[in-house]
Fold this protein.
Amino acid sequence: MTSDYKICTRCLMDTSDPNIKFDDNGVCNHCHDYDRMMNQKVITGAAGEKYLQKNVDEMKRNGRNKPYDCIIGVSGGVDTTYVAYLVKKMGLRPLAIHMDNGWDSELAVKNIEETLKRLNIDLYTEVLDWEEFRDLQSSFLKASTPDSEIPSDHAIWAVLGNMADKLKVKYIISGFNVRTESHLPRTWSQGHFDWKYIQSIQKQFGKTRLKTYPHIGFFTYYRRLLTHRRVDILNYLHYNKAEAMKILEQELGWRYYGGKHYESIYTRFYQGYILPTKFGYDKRRCHLSSLICSGEMTREIALQELEKPTYSPTMQEEDREYVVKKLGFTDESFEAILTAPKKSFWDYPSYTRIVEGPLFKGLYNIARDIYRNRQKKTHQVEA
């Protein structure tokens, strides 16, 4: 640890984020972003219930004479499963969509099957072409950026959007919530919706063309911002992750899988092994910091959690052997990836480099501020 190391006095974010900033009290920019997003995106109490009910009524009206009035993504994790539980209680008719990228843990599959069966929710599963997807994941590892979850994240939203277009369903309900997902540094991962970035990585490092991989083009992305409506329902009601897990376990037979997003074997290994080993990034800092700010966990307990291994060292070794073999690497070639010079999103072509470049940066900032102000005003009116 270097002499200029610094950690936030409020949360656990530290100088492992090279762009972190601290105020005079030692509080980091991520905590200030959390407070801003809580003010702009979260409505609590009776006002939140009223706002959510208004959205539910709107979804029901829009969904008349359609087989479904909304779409939800399911992974087997706590947030998406709790969303499925809630939308059913609200009387909505969701279609649940799962994207099978070849890395589902057995527990995740059981969670999805059991919970949706008990909730009587239809499930559509999109199975990715494994050879094509494996090559893309390998390309991202070879690119040496901390963005190797982008192939999955991008495809998930592409599949959800494609189905929404096909069924003419306007509403996509997500499990995102400010309280538990607000401290992720941009330097740790970015470019999730940037198709040009994904293409550039595959073109430079891949062996196959992306013929069937679900993707979102530049114009499709912006069109869907206008035609689809993403509803983050967990921001409009009391959401406590620990309480939600108890409800799911007791009422739906859901079982915990050991860590945030660890329902995927690859995600578990990537977040728990590759990111800390190669980049020095421990994503538990983000997740625990959000729980500290939301009041679900004290900073002292969170610091104790951070002292523990990311997950079982024995399981890490098992996962390493499994992932290396499944992706077609040798131990030597995988070790070369771990020790290769680190790069970032900005080392490769992307739409973001154009949009945030000198020509468009001013317009981008104006549009962003207008969007944020509209959200803030809408929530203030509803409150």
Observations:
- The chain has a mean pLDDT of 91.
